[in-house]
Amino acid sequence: MNQKTAPPNFKLRKKRALSMFAIVQFFIVVAMLLGGAAYYYYAFDTVASAEVATVQRGTALAGVYGTVYVAPVNEVVVRTRNFGQITKLNIKEGDTVKTGQLLIEVTDDSFKRQLDSTMAALEEAKNRQSIGPPSAADLSNQEIQVEKLKSLLAANNIAPIEYEKANNELVRLRAQVQNEIASQKLEVENLTRTCESIRAQLGQLQIVSPLDGVVLNLYCNLGEFVPPQEQLCRIGSSNNEIVAQVNEEDVGNLQPGMKAKIRLYAYQDKDLIGTLREILPQAENQLYRVIFDLDEPPRTFLPGMTGEMNIIIAEHKDVLIIPSRAVSNGNQVLVVKNNIAKQVHVTTGFHTLEKTEIVEGLSEGDVVILSNQDLYKEGIRIRELFFKNS
User: Fold this and answer.
1) Which residues fall within 8 angstroms of residue 207, CB to CB, at 6 or more apart?
2) pLDDT grade, residue 1 (50/70/90)?
3) What is the pLDDT of residue 372?
4) What is the dihedral of CA 339, 345, 350, 355, to 10 degrees?
5) What is the Cα Rg of the chain in Å?
6) Quick one: pLDDT at residue 245?
7) What is the structure's pLDDT at 28?
8) What is each CA distance from 239 to 70, 92, 202, 209, 292, in whole angstroms?
9) Once rounded to an integer, what is the mean pLDDT over residues 265-292?
10) Which of 24, 51, 105, 301 has the fewest other C-beta atoms within 10 Å?
11) Left (φ > 0), alpha (ψ -120 to 50) or beta: where does 298 sit?
12) Is the per-residue pLDDT at 297 higher than 50?
């Protein structure tokens, strides 16, 4: 049988159709790859926006910079004097207290037993003292005996030696009675002092506030057993002050009465004005502590708040300046050129909390990123810029 075969032109058309289909598939795959690459580029190598500022010319100020924290003018750590169990806890952190106010009561039953025992012994000693010395009766009898012997001696009815012996015994008894009186008195005094001492120790179990102020920290719990010298709480005065830490190379530029701009992190958008009151003489790790009074303290001004401060001491005019928050790690700035972030090393000059002088590394008009520098890696694309120049 003869087998039917397809016409030659049909086979050619079929081959062309298959080739066109392959080419279309290839372009589809390429388009998908390009689209994926574009998506990755814009989704993963692009940052939506950045807060930026331009490098400008202006006046750079030199300031003595320091970190600050808020501390009470006075503070006391309240401790136990004796062992015992906390049976009353009348305070919590943040409470306002007055001098002499009962804060915590510690109980030690052994003091009560000692006091009861000593009080009973004192009563017995006082009873013995009221009765008189034990040898008082012997002394009285001996005095009578000596008087009789004295009369007999005068009538020559006894030998002088007998009278002398009796008189010597009288002297001995008189001395013994005086010793017994002194001993009884001393016993009463000692037991009285012991009672007073135990009462004082019992009083020390009543923990009272040593000053007017606020409970800053509470270190104990109700029912807890505490040893002597255990920290119970920390009380700070109601008045607070700003304490700044300044490098030793800067402290020589300071003197009381200087004004400082202080920025607490709790109030980052508000500069507080402080007056330098005192420079403490002792350095710690080459840092000196200086004390400021705020001219107008904020409504919420709490111990433990932290921040920064600057005291202006000099200026440079007509120099390149940028916002200080654009500088990270001391000398690194992120510059945006053609919407691409680039890390630039700069040399800085005068510096305050607001502005930093740029000596080398940037040009006037350059755009720098102001915040969240750790989110921007070098070469990343930034789509929108929000300018914050002031």
Assistant:
1) 78, 80, 102, 103, 104, 105, 106, 232
2) very low
3) 85
4) 20
5) 47
6) 93
7) 66
8) 10, 19, 33, 16, 13
9) 91
10) 24
11) beta
12) yes
180 neighbors 133 (Cβ within 8 angstroms): yes
Mean pLDDT of 279-283: 90
Contact 223, 86 (CB under 8 A): yes
Question: Which H or E run includes 290?
Answer: strand 287-294
- Measure Cα distances from 382 to 122, 334, 373 in Å: 90, 12, 13
**Whole-number pLDDT of residue 235:** 95
pTM: 0.52
Q: 108-148, pLDDT tens digit by residue? A: 877 778 888 899 999 999 999 999 999 999 999 999 999 99
**Which is it for strands 347-351 and 340-345: parallel, antiparallel or unpaired?**
unpaired
| Residue 204: both structure tokens together | 């020390």
pLDDT at 377 over 80: yes
Contact 181, 130 (CB under 8 A): no
Nearest-5° angle of CA 34, CA 39, CA 43?
155
User: Which two tokens mark 313?
Assistant: 């001491």
**Residue 373 near residue 328, CB atoms below 8 Å:** yes
Please give the single-letter amino acid code of residue 126: K
Distance separating alpha carbons of residues 113 and 107, to the nearest angstrom? 12
First to last CA, the chain: 97
| Stronger pLDDT, 44 or 171, i.e. the higher one | 171
- Residue-by-residue DSSP string for 313-370: EEEEEEEEEEEGGGEETTTEEEEEETTEEEEEE-EEEEE-SSEEEEEES--TT-EEE-
* 165-210: pLDDT as tens digits: 999 999 999 999 999 999 999 999 999 999 898 888 777 788 999 9
Tokens for 172?
Answer: 């001995």
Whether the Cβ atoms of residue 272 and residue 262 lie closer than 8 Å to each other: yes
**Rounded distance between C-alpha atoms, residue 173 and residue 143, angstroms:** 10
What's the number of CA atoms in the CB half-sphere (13 Å) around residue 122?
15
Q: 54-69 burial, b if ≥16 CB within 10 A, otherwise e?
A: ebbeeebbbbbbbebb
Task: List all residues 6 or more positions away from 325 whose beta carbon is below 8 Å from its beta carbon.
Answer: 370, 371
